Input
Amino acid sequence: MNYLKTAAVGLSLLLAGCGPQTFGTFQAVKEIATATVPPEVVMPAANTFDILKGAAVNYGRYCIKEKMAPAMCNVASRRAVIKAVRVGTGARDRMVANYENDTPVASSVYNLVVGAISDLKNSPAAASQFTGVPLQ
Output
């Protein structure tokens, strides 16, 4: 029972000292959760992802054709490409649906697409032999 009293007193002291800061934290979380991106950045990001997704498909076909023998077809690289394609595809679809319905696109969804683009650009799937275009 003494443990309960001690815990209650400690918790009340802890919470009593963070009133205004807690409100500021909740306000910051609310702003982050409701942030949106401008409509003019949505389609370029979606198109960039689509190009890199096509390269990832070509990369997968190449690895299958070569029976996973080349070093660029190692397990870690393949898993990274698959993860980026899955995450990016879901986020891209949500982003484009919002854009087409004239609803704001959440920055968190946009950031998932941008992250997937970055992951794919840094993977073997971005090699010019899979994209057909040298990336800069």
Observations:
- The radius of gyration is 23 Å.
- Residues 2-33 form one domain.
